[in-house]
Automatic annotation (TrEMBL):
NAD(+) binds at G7, A8, G9, A10, V11, G12, D32, N95, V118, S119, N120. Transmembrane segments: none annotated. PANTHER family: L-2-HYDROXYCARBOXYLATE DEHYDROGENASE (NAD(P)(+)) (PTHR43128), L-LACTATE DEHYDROGENASE (PTHR43128:SF16). Residues 147-297 form the Lactate/malate dehydrogenase C-terminal domain. It catalyses: (S)-malate + NAD(+) = oxaloacetate + NADH + H(+). It is an enzyme of class 1 (oxidoreductase). GO terms for molecular function: L-lactate dehydrogenase (NAD+) activity; L-malate dehydrogenase (NAD+) activity. This is Malate dehydrogenase. It comes from Lentiprolixibacter aurantiacus. The active site is at H175.
């Protein structure tokens, strides 16, 4: 199993590290445009191999796509991250050009790869990869909901003073400060609805803290987060590589599901060796449906800025 990660920055390197530590891939290739950067990150990571007991071979390359040839999975993390006070949508101007070029280069050398899009604004970048490559929709997956759901569970556990392993919950919708739809009505602690433990006000606080999870970290760090994003990407890569048939909310091209069409947005999917093996349509109430429509309108507005 060969995995390429384009962008050896904070998220790309973190994702490569988690993939290696889980030891399911034979090879991870890091590619970056900055001279020597991916090679340096790869060497540093390889020097953790004996300490962390993994056999995954990590190599780095400066923009030489021939080194990525025949990758099974390719992750796109190249592009700029936001700074405090910015929205993800403001990154579109620079990141659209980078993501389009990277996806095209990747597919020249790995025509059968499954692509995971991470660069922001992620839902729009995922849509752009569809438009630029025309790949079957099971092979283009945007990562956002897996991360947002992990943050939702963190906030729920914090509010309930419960261990995170007790919590289950999911965030669907767009990966943006206003567009996320944390499904609080469906969230549970060991199968018991969280409303049994939390007041309406406290649940609303959890929802709001989840939606601005990325912005909160960006303010604290001066740039956007990388550990949980890297872990979330590695979980998707593992689900595909190991044919796990796990369910994650991912940004995928919809054709009528959830009443939406020609848009990439976060919905639950089953991930396996073919990428997206199924889009899962769960029952939403009227309020949740309205939030999903509102979220989709925001993503469509950003998609409208693309030159495709
Ligand atoms: N979807 C999500 O949940 C999520 C989570 C975290 C970050 N992100 C996004 O991921 C992106 C990367 O974030 P980061 O913190 O790793 O940024 P970073 O600046 O640390 O790393 C980005 C890397 O991309 C490289 N790069 C730029 N243009 C390139 C090109 N044409 N080809 C190859 N490499 C190129 C840069 O040299 C840099 O090393 C940002 O757009 C950020 O907003 C998304
Ligand atoms: O917040 C960001 O800009 C990066 C990423 O989308 C995140 O949610 O951490």
């Amino acid at each position: 199993m060969k995995v390429t990660v384009v962008g050896a920055g904070a998220v790309g390197a973190s994702c490569a590290e988690y993939i290696a530590i889980k030891d399911f891939a034979s090879e991870v290739v890091l590619l970056d445009i900055k001279e020597g950067y991916a090679e340096g990150k790869a060497m540093d990571l390889m020097q953790t191999a004996s300490l962390n007991s993994f056999d995954t071979k990590i190599t780095g390359t400066t923009n030489d796509y021939s080194k990525t040839a025949n990758s099974d999975i390719a992750v796109i993390t190249s592009g700029i991250p936001r700074k405090p006070g910015m929205t993800r949508e403001e990154l579109i101007g620079i990141n659209a050009g980078i993501v389009k070029e990277v996806a095209t280069n990747l597919l020249k050398h790995s025509p059968d790869a499954i692509i995971i899009v991470v660069s922001n604004p992620m839902d729009t970048m995922t849509y752009l990869v569809h438009k630029a490559t025309d790949l079957p929709k099971n092979r283009i997956i945007g990562m956002g909901g897996a991360l947002d759901s992990a943050r939702f569970k963190y906030r729920l556990a914090e509010a309930m003073e419960a261990p995170i392993s007790d919590i289950d919950g999911m965030v669907i919708g767009g990966h943006s400060d206003t567009g996320m739809v944390p499904l609080i009505r469906h969230a549970t602690r060991n199968s018991v609805k969280v409303s049994e433990f939390l007041s309406d006000d406290r649940m609303q606080e959890v929802v709001e803290a989840t939606k601005v999870g990325g912005a909160t970290l960006t303010k604290l760090l001066g740039t956007s987060a990388w550990y949980a994003p890297g872990a979330a990407v590695s979980a998707l890569v593992q689900a595909i590589a190991c044919d796990q048939k796990k369910m994650f909310p991912c940004s995928v091209l919809l054709a009528g599901e959830y009443g939406l069409d020609d848009i990439c947005i976060g919905v639950p999917v089953i991930l396996g060796r073919n990428g997206i093996e199924q889009i899962v349509e769960i029952e939403l109430n009227d309020k949740e449906k309205a939030k999903m429509q509102e979220s989709a309108a925001g993503v469509s507005k950003t998609n409208g800025l693309l030159d495709v």
